[in-house]
Amino acid sequence: MSKGDKRTPPPEPEALPAPVVDAHTHLDACGAVEAADVRRMVDRAEAAGVGRVVTVADDIESAKWTVSAAGWDERVYAAVALHPTRAKDLGEYERETLAELVRDPRVVAVGETGLDYYWDYSPPEPQQEAFRWHIDLAKRVGKPLMIHDRDAHEDILRILDEEGAPETVIFHCFSGDADFARRCVAAGYVLSFAGTATFRNANARGLREAAALVPVEQMLVETDAPFLTPHPFRGRPNEPYCVNYTVRDLAELRETGVAELAVALTATTERVFQLDRVAAS
């Protein structure tokens, strides 16, 4: 594949036979700035059968933007938090701002928060402190906790146990193997699968085994765009419409129909994020 191909977005696929929700994306990182940009991106997604998206914050300015974006288009919902790699920056201003933003009715989750031991932007101690604070925030406002877990499985589970997990916990871009998936499912957690679950390299084998066994009642699908573009377009720009490819791949992996899986995923997503409550607000 040439460098030019790497810069070219995947082709826009035929629409799914039933609509799904991209449970975790970053519209601002995909290049959206204004309402028109958001509308164009979500129009592309909707044409592919991805009718709604949850756009997720990375820092405080992103959190403000995601809430605005969710107000620009009724197909967009928001999640707000300070990313674990920025945890050392969680001061009083950040806490007050997030605590205010999360109460917006179009904010459907506290996230993404958690632990990232792969990068060294923020030491483990402030990450764990910030994670505990976000857990408490999710419980205070009664919204799902959206977890970023990179090379930190055991500490994530330990802290959830120590703090008492919120009613709904989502492992965004689930990265564990089948055994870790079983432990999370047994705890009642929801696992969200991104394009990584479609990869064909040896490192993805355990993840694909996990994606095959998770009950669909505890399963979401996402892009994490602009990152993690699904197979066979790995390395190319990602957007919410590409969750179409992930759904089709997961349906084949789980030996079920695409329409059946799409309907079930949407039902789970609506329940997990309480989207009926948002529509009524």
From TrEMBL:
InterPro entries xrefs: DNase_TatD-rel_CS, Metal_Hydrolase, TatD-like, TatD/YcfH-like
Top-level taxon in the UniProt lineage: Bacteria
Chain residues that bind a divalent metal cation 2: H148, H172
Keywords linked to the UniProt accession: Hydrolase, Metal-binding
GO cellular component terms given for this protein: cytosol
GO molecular function: DNA nuclease activity; hydrolase activity, acting on ester bonds; metal ion binding
This protein's record includes keyword Protein transport: no
Cited Gene3D superfamilies: Metal-dependent hydrolases (3.20.20.140)
Name of one Pfam family that matches: TatD_DNase
Binding, a divalent metal cation 1: H24, H26, E112, D224
Protein name per Swiss-Prot or TrEMBL: TatD DNase family protein
